[in-house]
Amino acid sequence: MSAARTARRGGAPALVLALAGALGLSGAGAANADTETDTNTARPAAAGLGREYVALGDSFTAGPFIPPQYGDPALCLRSRSNYPNLVARTLDAAEFTDASCIGAETEDMTSAQNLALTSNPPQLDSLTPDTTLVTLGIGGNDLGYAEIALKCLALAPTDLDGDPCRDHYIDQGRDELRSRLPGVGEDIGAVLDGIRERSPDATVAVVGYLALLPEDDGCLQAPYAEGDITYLNGLYRELNAVIEKEAADAGAVFVDTSEPGHDMCAPPGERWVEGIFPNRPAAPIHPNAEGMAAIGDRVAEALGVEGVQRDSPRV
């Protein structure tokens, strides 16, 4: 593992736990008997998908601090209200495993993820030859999500009208963050290959990331420099494009969740991602319950199901 990746790996749990604590807030669909495809889309039929559903992913899948929290290990901070649970209830899944965990990277799909005093097993170990549905939300931490969020927040006060974070990551015309994207794509492709090897008949839905920032000006909840908002929006759009391409190359369903207008600066009733000072139970700069429901709706639609069940979760 490179030194740069080592540094990034430590960031995501730190962002969720340390920042949230300071604020007082204590994851390739093959055609089979149950799947329909045509030459233009990988969208499957819903029948039979819930026989054995496995969710893989990082904190944008797990739902840290969205109540009720559950699961083992507890430090993965999974929520019963995250989109995998909503989709599982909608499908009336006979078997459902949520293997997601905060801070997860692509390498944690095949290797145990170290957490404080414990570890989360390799997420792909949850797959079986009988798995019928897999959702995957991964790639943000490989890019350096927590590192980027914290660095850009720290640099913003030095030039609120400029783009100090962009200046930090671009040296002599080389953008360090965009240079990571091809590797992120290769790693996601390898994960999708691993899913196919373990669950050859499963439908796979690869979930993109929510829009985090407004199109232009920041706000108290997202106090980034003006130029860096444009820079970061472009970066995250490119990340979603990389994820979409890898899904298409693997014959998987891509779930686009990047609808604008629901970012950290949106009004509370329209906000799907909490800012650095959450107004609702969720980790800072992460989806809230409404965001999880919105993602669940888009996953369900991609799978040919009408909308997610939003009734009270099982405890």
UniProtKB/TrEMBL annotation:
This enzyme's EC code(s): 3.1.1.3
Disulfide bonds: C76-C101, C152-C165, C219-C265
Keywords: Disulfide bond, Hydrolase, Signal
Record's signal peptide: 1-33
InterPro entries, per the entry: SEST-like, SGNH_hydro, SGNH_hydro_sf
Active site residues according to the UniProt entry: S59 (nucleophile), H286
PANTHER family: LIPASE 2 (PTHR37981), SGNH HYDROLASE-TYPE ESTERASE DOMAIN-CONTAINING PROTEIN (PTHR37981:SF1)
Name of the protein in question: Lipase 2
Organism from which the protein derives: Streptomonospora litoralis
